[in-house]
From TrEMBL:
It comes from the Eukaryota. InterPro entries: SF3b5/RDS3-10 (IPR009846). This is Splicing factor subunit. It holds the Pfam family SF3b10.
Length: 114
């Protein structure tokens, strides 16, 4: 009886999709790299959540967590879902989420101050 799972053999770098294996820097010209960087800077200036050049990994994660909890508080159906899942009242869940949001702000400010 044949196996139900096909045997997959890895392709060499020259066989992959019929293309030669080149580093990304060789595919992009200098103007392409400048264009990509300028687009990224534009997005970072326009949208707060995309960060900036000096943002480290911890601050980025705290921003994501803070924004998520703020969204949960602002969207009643999601807040009600969490309240049912944790067997708490909607008001208690809103209070807990607001506390987490404030705690995120305090932790991030202590971390960035030194």
């Amino acid at each position: 009886m044949p196996s139900l799972h096909p045997v997959v053999t890895p392709l060499s770098s020259n066989q992959e999709l019929g293309q030669r294996s080149l580093p990304l820097s060789r595919w992009l010209s200098a103007s392409d790299r400048f264009n990509i960087n300028s687009q990224l800077e534009h997005l970072q200036a326009k949208y707060v959540g995309t960060g900036h050049a000096d943002l480290n990994r911890f601050e980025w994660a705290v921003n994501i967590q803070r924004d998520s909890y703020a969204s949960y508080v602002g969207h009643y159906p999601m807040l009600a879902y969490f309240a049912i899942a944790e067997n708490e009242s909607v008001g208690r869940e809103r209070y807990n989420f607001m506390q987490v949001t404030v705690d995120c702000f305090i932790i991030c400010s202590k971390f960035s101050m030194g």
